[in-house]
Fold this protein.
Amino acid sequence: MTSMGKTRRMMSVGMIGAALTLTLAAPARAGETPAAATDRNAAGWELTPTGTDARFRGLAPVDRRTAWAAGSKGTVLRTTDGGRSWRDVSPPGAGELEFRDVEAFDARRAVVLAIGEGEASRVLRTEDGGATWTESFRNTDPRAFYDCMTFFDRRHGLAMSDPVDGKYRILSTRDGGRSWEVLPNAGMPDALPGEAGFAASGQCLVSAGSRDVWLATGGGATARVLHSADRGLTWTATVSPVPAGDPARGVFGLAFRDRTHGIAVGGDYRKDQPSPRAGAVTGDGGRTWRASATPPPAYRSGVAWLPHSGNAALAVGPTGTDLTTDGGRTWRTVDTGSYDTVDCTADGSCWAAGEKGRIARLSVRKGGPGTP
C-alpha cells in the first residue's frame, strides 16, 4: 500500500471512531430513552442472525468482516461477511464444554478456551477456519480452573487459572497455542483468601504491547488487578476501588488502550444486588486505580476502547451498554440490551455478544430517521 493509501485508510478509520463516539454520546431528548436516542442518532447495536441460543462470553473480532464467538454447549461461530451470516464451526464432540474465551489471528486461525475444574479446562486450536480442531492443552490438575486467555502477538500468549497452592497459575505458549507450559510461580504474589478470577467475558486477563499483561480478581476482601511487564514471569498486585468482599463481587473485565491507560469494570453479578463503584481507571499502567466519578449504573462484565476515538469506551452487561468519552471517569447508558462481552478492531468495528445467541455489531447508519 502506498503512503497516500495508508494515510487515507487511517483517516477513514479515525472518522469511523469519531462518528461512533459523537452519535452515541448525543444526549437524549426530554422523555426519550437512551436506546431511542441511540436510534435517533443513527448509531447502535445491530443484532446479527446466529441461529443458536448459546450464550457467548468469548468474542474475537478480527476486522469489520471477520469475527469469532465462543460460548456454551461447545459452540464456536465464525463470520466473514460482517455478521450477515454465521457459520457453526464448533469442534466435534465439544457439546459438554463451556467455551468462555477465544483469540483469533485471522479468518482461519483461532484458539478457544474451555473452563471448568480439572479436565474441563482445555485449549483447542484451528488453522483452517474451524473445519478441524486440535486439542493443545488439557488440564490434569483437579485444583486448577482456567478462566481467561490473551495473546501478545500471533505466537506468544497466556492463560490464567484460579489460585493453586495459594497463587494464580499462568499457562504460556510461544507457538500460537500449539503447545503450552505452566510458568513458575515464584514471581506471583499470594492470592487473598477466597480470591479468584471471573470467566464472564474473556477479559479477566488482557494484554497491551509485546510484554504487558493484567489479571483481574474478585471474591476476596478487596478486588485487585495484577500486572506483569515480562509476559507473566513476575507480577505486582494493586487494590482497586471496585467493591469485593463476596464471591460474586469484584473486577470482571479490563481493557487497556496502551501500556498505561486502562479501565476496569465489574460489580456484583447477582441480579438482586446493587453494584456501586462498578468502574475504575488507571493512567499509570495499573500501579494505581481511581474510582469512576460517575460509574456504570449496574454490574458490567465487558469493556472495550472505541477505535481511534481518544478517550471513548463501551462497557456491557446483562442490563445494558454504557459509554464513556472521558477515559472511564464518567459513564452513561446508551442501550438496554443484554450483552456479556464487547470488543473493537483496529479498522473501526465494534462487536458485542451475550445470552440467547445474541451477537451484535455497532453500526453507524448513513442518514437517519426521516432521511431519504
In short: The radius of gyration is 19 Å. Helices lie at 3-25, 34-40.
